[in-house]
Queue: 3 jobs
Job 1
Amino acid sequence: MRGFLAVAGSLLTSTLAGCARPMDVAAARAAIQDADRAFNQATAEHRVDGWVQFFASDGAMIRGAGTVTGLAAIRETMTKAFADTSFKLTWEPTSADVGASGDLGYSIGHYEMRFRDERGSAQVRTGRYLTVWKKQGDGSWKVVQDIGVQDPVVTP
């Protein structure tokens, strides 16, 4: 009897595992890139509020001066940048990928930052970024880690 139950249990487990829906990797990658583009759009329209709304509550930004963790700290850090009305940050993802579980992924892309320096001269900085995204219970994607690396500044 024990042998029968073991075989039946094994068959049931195999059957249920076979019923699990495989993750659509292409769709998940597209969803992450769509979330990244929406993040860019929200930031362009709502500035610091748009930036913060795309972070998970425990999200973090890795910056040269250290890591900034949590929504309040992220808002405080980015409020300083967005207080400058000439400050504009835009970006575009170039690729994305997702882990086998389908709930964690990343996007990579290029960014451009425009602002005026202390003399009032228009400045443009470009760079690359890596953003780690986590799928939330409601199906949305939120930023859990963000890091940007500035391209070398070219002086004329």
Note: The chain has four helices and six strands.
Job 2
Amino acid sequence: MKLATIGYEKETQGTVIERLKSAGVELLIDVRAVAASRRAGFSKTLLSASLNEAGIGYVHLRQLGTPKLGRDAARKGRIAEMHQIFRAHMVEPGAQLELAKAKDFAREKKVALLCYEADAAGCHRTILAKQICATLGCEIEDL
């Protein structure tokens, strides 16, 4: 069992969808706090519709996104600080509830966690993937 992660920083929507399809992803879990983007095709409504056309489900779990202070730290290259802020956020009840939902989805089908950063090591989605896989015993596949 594999849990995929993907960042769209340097990609087109079409390329991301093709990677997801090639990996057998059935559901994309958007883990951005704000599911809007200046990059064409990656705002919530358009992304969801395009994924649906490709036969891939979409769900936005906002509480699994990085809080604003964490996003600000990441933009300044302070990844360790962003990770610390995100880990503190993850103890919040809303985040725990949505983490449980993500685990349930991952038990049922092949899922991918989506965020912006191309490099998974510099993104909070890696923390989420590790938490999910620690529970489910799955392997992380960075697309």
Note: The chain has one domain: 2-142.
Job 3
Amino acid sequence: MPRQFHGAIFDVDGVLVDSPHEAAWREALRELMQGEWSDISSETTWTAKRFTPQVYQQVMSGKPRMSGALDALEYFEVPDAEVRVEAYAERKQTMLIALIEAGEFTAYPDALRFIIAVKDAGIRVAAASSSKNAGLFLRQIPLDTFATEQGLASQSVRPGLSLLEFFDADVSGRDFAHGKPHPEMFLTAARELATAPEQCFVIEDAEAGVQAAKAGNMAALGLARADDADLLAAGGADLVVTSLDDVDLVALLDGRLMARGR
């Protein structure tokens, strides 16, 4: 029997929202290296220029806060990384909240168009982010205003609806026993959508997230916003696009992940 999709599971940071997570991680480490940790900065491989978007995507993106912090410190060969990880994670979180409260983030229009089209097609949608801050972003995005501005007539969007309220399930920020690339988060999302894993597809911008989807027997749609298409493909993505506008919605309803025009 051909696959049919009944559930769509969305990562948040980098997929739905252009969040300040990367900036918060980068600036928090810069502050520490130029301040409290200045005595050990010469012992590391860290420089402000070396903390690139590619490093963020490959080392930290999609991981729980403490895991991301530890992986970053180890990547830059920071001495006593396991001792310093909590200070780094806390500094990043403080900076992130300040950026969110200042409105330093935007929703991706292609992602909002896509999620509305997916739900209008009868596919249930879930949010699944490792970030405990995902809800802070999602509740501030007025989906009804977006639909009106885009001229979208949607049966799924009602007046006053936020993006957070649009989801049928939300497992973001929970304390799972295993982080990505383990599939626990996505399997939980599928269960809360009352959908079998093999009838779900996951939208991810991080290699670890793609690997988690495939480990859970789900289709993986890789979204390469950071010039990392090869990395997502290597992670096992069934389709990689640079914009969700490029996904063939007709093929999607037939259970196939394809780009338009292929």
Note: The chain has twelve helices and eight strands.
